[in-house]
Write a structure and sequence with these properties.
single chain; 339 residues; alpha/beta; TIM Barrel; seven-stranded parallel β-sheet; two-stranded antiparallel ribbon; 16 helices
């Protein structure tokens, strides 16, 4: 069988085409303290500086062996872009959203006419260009963004879950706004060289909101984003946290190429449920990758591979204190697997 470049290999797997072996990639957060020490680019500066962001992304490839580069490292840049209050990150902790800017429909209007080149959104796009210019011929360049439902929750706060149940017009208006932003942001990342798009929408959970609200407030908006990427021939991955088992069929209905599942989902069940999307995951980032030995990770990786996973990967973002040797063990298991 033909031996493919990492870029070719991942694209083929996401499009369900045969390959020589499994790609070794991580579609969620990749940075660790040991990588930071190895490359000299540290959080929180690497969240704000495009050069440092790109250097730290490269470390996932050079130090760990991931066959892709990916930015950013957190899911607060989008909310910060629109003026939400952010709790600053540290060397070991990502920044987080602590204040919100949308209370009523009129507040949405104040957020329009934004400039994608500004703020940390602009930094992410610049980092993608740096990575694409250097690695785009060989490695996949993954862009990642917070999905529209979770961004709406960041903008509106904890009242968001009540809002979708009691004020449909407001909920749909905010979803329309965040989705239009997602499409603009994704297109800019692609323009700068991204060839794979990851949508992280942790609170858009079937488990949290049920099928009725998922079909009304999540599925049509994910579909719009995925369709926009299809027009550009960009494969897509969707990650939603928690036990997504009962919602997998709805999740893939948006047309996404791959679904990243966390450790609460049984891999064999996911593989059986999904007809079109590939299954990505799902080693436990904390209890396995951070806190176990390479030998234990090898054993669990084999279990996940035996269950039929299409891409072996963490079940969510990598914990910053995860040892390099543990991640390398997972990577080598992926590279040694043929379908």
């Amino acid at each position: 069988m033909t031996e493919y470049t990492p870029k070719e290999r991942l694209a083929r797997v996401l499009n369900k085409k045969p390959v020589d072996r499994m790609p070794a990639v991580c579609v969620t957060q990749t940075a660790t303290v040991e990588q930071m020490e190895a490359c000299g680019a540290f959080w929180p500066e690497a969240n704000e500086d495009a050069e440092k962001m790109a250097i730290l992304s490269e470390a996932g490839h050079t130090e760990i062996g991931f066959e892709a580069v990916r930015v950013p490292y957190d899911i607060s840049a989008e909310a910060e872009f629109f003026g939400c209050e952010i709790k600053a990150g540290t060397q070991v902790q990502q920044p987080s959203v602590v204040g919100h800017v949308v209370k009523v429909a009129e507040d949405i209007e104040k957020l329009k006419n934004y400039d994608i080149s500004e703020g940390r959104i602009g930094v992410v796009c610049e980092a993608i260009k740096i990575l694409a210019d250097k690695h785009g011929d060989n490695l996949p360049i993954m862009g990642s963004m917070l999905g529209p439902f979770s961004l709406a929750q960041h903008l509106n706060g904890d009242s968001w879950f009540m809002a979708i149940m009691t004020d449909e017009a407001f909920g749909l208006a905010l979803m329309k706004f965040t989705t239009e932003f997602n499409i603009a942001y994704a297109k800019k990342m692609v323009e700068n060289g991204a060839d794979t798009m990851v949508l992280i929408d942790p609170t858009a959970s079937y488990q949290l909101i049920g099928p009725e609200f998922y079909e009304k407030f999540v599925l049509p908006f994910h579909t719009r984003i995925i369709d926009a990427m299809k027009e550009l021939n960009i494969p897509t991955v969707l990650h939603i946290c928690g036990d997504a088992t009962d919602g997998l069929t709805l999740m893939e209905a948006c047309g996404v190429n791959g679904i990243s599942i966390d450790q609460n989902v049984d891999v064999a069940t996911a593989v059986a449920k999904l007809e079109n999307a590939i299954v990505i995951g799902n080693l436990d980032p904390a209890n396995m990758l951070w806190n176990q030995t390479p030998e234990a990770i090898i054993e669990e990786s084999q279990n996940v591979l035996n269950a039929g996973v299409h891409l072996l990967a963490p079940g969510c973002g990598i914990v910053s204190k995860t040892p390099t040797e543990n991640l390398r063990a997972m990577v080598e298991m992926a590279k040694g697997h043929t379908y």
